[in-house]
Design brief:
alpha/beta; EC 2.1.1.72; Ferritin; DNA_methylase_N6_adenine_CS; 482 residues; S-adenosyl-L-methionine; DNA_Adenine_Mtase; 9-stranded mixed β-sheet
C-alpha cells in the first residue's frame, strides 16, 4: 500500500511545474510527511493522556491542525465540501501555515524539542506548489499513510531511503546527502557502538549514519530504559543546509526516533579549541563534504588552516571525541599522500593524537557520480598510532548505478578487520617505516602481483620480426606439402 502511495505522489508531482527534480521531490514530500507524522504523534499522545485521565495540550492547534486544513473529515470520511483546494489552498499554505509553524522557534525550550524541529523546518523551507489541485491530491495520498506502529515506520523508512538514494544519484548536489548504506553498516560494525555511548555526525546530511546506528543498537527485546536512552541521549548531529536538515529529521523519524537531536548549524563555525568535556562524544561516524573552499574566518577556528572542508571537519571530529572515543570517517584518498603543509600537518596530528588502526581503500564508483576515490579512516583517540592495517576493497566488478556496493562486498573486510588479518588484499604498515617528514600513508598493496616491466621499442620490434620469420617458415613447409 505504501509503495503505491509513494508512486502516486511521484506521479502527481511530475505534473507540478514548481517541482523540477529529485531534490525538489524529496524536499516537498518531506514537509508534508512531517506534518502528517506530527498529527499521528499528537493523536497518540492525546489518546494516552485520556487513558491516564490527564489533560493534553496539543503542539499544533486550531486551523493549522492536519485534520482541519489538509484532511478534514465528516463521519470518518474525507469532507470534500470543506477541504481547501486550488488557489485557496496554495494561499493558505504560503500565508498562514508556513508563517505560523516558523514561529515555533519562539516557544522552543531547546534544540532537542519537537517545537525546535518544527520552527527550523518551516523557517528554512518554502512550499514549491503552484497548483492547489496537485497539492490537494498529494495531501489526500499522504493522509492515507500512518506512523502509528513500528512496522508502518519501517516500511515508510525503506521507501524514503529509496527516494534519498535516487536523489543522490540525480546529480552532484544530491550526492552530498547519500552515503552507500552497505558502507555505513560496515563502518558501524567495525566501530561497534554500545547502548549508553553517544554517537555524533557533524555533517549529518540525510542522517544515514545515525539511522543505521539506531537500527544496529535497537533489538526486539530492548528494555524500556535502554529504549529511552536511544530515543533521547544517544544520537546527535549538526547540519548546515536546510534541505539536508529536513531530510535528516524525516529519515530519523521514520526509523523510529521521535525528536531527533539534530541542530541546524554549520559545525565549522565552532572554534575547536573551545570544546569542553560536555561537548564531546564517544563515537563519530561521518562522511563530511570535500572541496568547498572555506572562508578565512572559518579557517581561524582550527589550528591547521585549510580551505579544504574535509580537513577542517577531520580536526572538528578529532576534538569532538572523548579520550578513548572511536571514529570512522570517509575522506578523499588524496589526503593520504598530498604534500601541501596542511595535509602533512593533519596526518601528523592524526597519527600522534589517535590510533589510526585501520584504513579501508574504497574502489572507484563507490560513491556514484562523485568522480573521486575515497578511503575510510578508523581511529581511536588517546594514544599514538603504531601500526595501520590496510584493506583494499576489490568487488571484482565495475561499480555503478546498476552494480552498486552491497553488504556481501563488505563482509570480508569486516571479518578480517577483527583480527587485523593480512592477505592478498590486506597488509600492515609499521609507523616506524613511514617517512617522518611527509607522513605519506598512500595505499600501496605489497601483496599485489607485480606488473610486468614495459618492454623497450627494440625488444618489441625484435619480437615482431621473430614471429614473422617463424610464420614464413611454416608457410614454406605447407607449400612443400601441396
Amino acid at each position: 500500500m505504501y509503495e503505491n502511495a509513494f508512486n502516486s505522489i511521484e506521479k502527481a508531482l511530475r505534473a507540478e511545474e514548481g517541482i523540477s527534480n529529485e531534490l525538489d521531490y524529496v524536499e516537498q514530500t518531506s514537509w508534508i510527511l512531517f506534518l502528517k507524522y506530527l498529527h499521528d504523534l499528537e493523536s497518540e499522545r492525546r489518546d494516552r493522556a485520556e487513558l491516564e485521565g490527564k489533560d493534553y495540550k496539543p503542539i499544533i492547534d486550531g486551523q493549522i491542525r492536519w485534520d482541519q486544513w489538509a484532511a478534514p473529515k465528516k463521519n470518518g470520511q474525507f469532507d470534500h465540501n470543506t477541504a481547501l483546494t486550488g488557489d485557496d489552498l496554495v494561499d493558505f499554505v504560503d500565508r498562514s501555515l508556513f508563517p505560523y509553524l516558523a514561529r515555533f522557534h519562539e516557544r522552543a525550550t531547546g534544540p532537542d524539542t519537537i517545537e525546535y524541529k518544527i520552527g527550523e523546518v518551516f523557517t528554512e523551507l518554502r512550499s514549491k506548489f503552484r497548483s492547489g489541485y496537485i497539492l490537494r491530491d498529494v495531501l489526500e495520498i499522504v493522509d492515507s499513510l500512518h506512523f502509528k506502529t513500528q512496522a508502518d515506520k519501517h516500511e515508510l523508512s525503506a521507501l524514503y531511503e529509496t527516494r534519498i538514494r535516487r536523489m543522490g544519484n540525480a546529480g552532484r548536489n544530491g550526492g552530498e546527502y547519500y552515503t552507500p548504506r552497505p558502507l555505513i553498516r560496515a563502518m558501524i560494525r567495525v566501530v561497534a557502538p554500545k547502548i549508553g555511548e553517544t554517537i555524533y555526525d557533524g555533517a549529518v546530511g540525510s542522517a544515514g549514519f545515525l539511522c543505521e546506528a539506531y537500527d544496529y543498537l535497537r533489538r526486539p527485546n530492548i528494555s524500556a530504559s535502554d529504549y529511552e536512552t536511544l530515543q533521547r541521549r544517544t544520537f546527535y548531529g549538526q547540519e548546515k543546509k536546510s534541505l539536508a536538515y529536513i531530510i535528516g529529521i524525516m529519515n530519523m523519524i521514520l526509523h523510529g526516533i521521535e525528536a531527533p537531536n539534530i541542530v541546524r548549524t554549520n559545525s565549522l563555525n565552532e572554534n575547536v579549541l573551545d570544546y569542553q568535556e560536555k561537548d564531546r562524544h564517544d563515537i563519530v561516524l561521518a562522511n563530511p563534504p570535500f572541496g568547498g573552499g572555506e572562508r578565512r574566518e572559518v579557517q581561524q577556528n582550527f589550528p591547521i588552516k585549510s580551505g579544504e572542508t574535509a580537513y577542517l571537519f577531520l580536526q572538528h571530529f578529532i576534538r569532538k571525541l572523548r579520550a578513548g572515543g572511536r571514529a570512522a570517517v570517509v575522506i578523499k584518498n588524496t589526503f593520504l599522500s598530498n604534500t601541501d603543509n596542511a595535509s602533512v600537518a593533519l596526518r601528523r596530528e592524526l597519527l600522534e593524537s589517535c590510533n589510526l588502526h585501520t584504513i579501508l581503500d574504497c574502489p572507484q564508483g563507490t560513491f556514484q557520480g562523485a568522480g573521486v576515490k575515497t578511503v575510510v579512516l578508523f581511529f581511536q583517540k588517546g594514544e599514538a598510532t603504531r601500526r595501520i592495517w590496510y584493506y583494499q576493497l576489490v568487488p571484482g566488478r565495475s561499480m555503478g548505478k546498476t552494480n552498486p556496493l552491497n553488504d556481501d562486498d563488505m563482509a570480508e573486510f569486516v571479518e578480517l578487520q577483527r583480527g587485523f588479518v593480512t592477505g592478498p588484499k590486506s597488509w600492515i604498515v609499521d609507523i616506524a617505516t613511514v617517512d617522518a617528514k611527509t607522513f605519506d600513508l598512500s595505499v600501496k598493496n605489497p601483496n599485489a602481483p607485480e606488473a610486468e616491466a614495459m618492454r623497450s621499442p627494440e625488444e618489441i620490434i625484435d619480437a615482431i620480426l621473430a614471429r614473422d620469420a617463424e610464420t614464413a617458415e611454416i608457410l614454406e613447409r605447407i607449400r612443400g606439402l601441396l
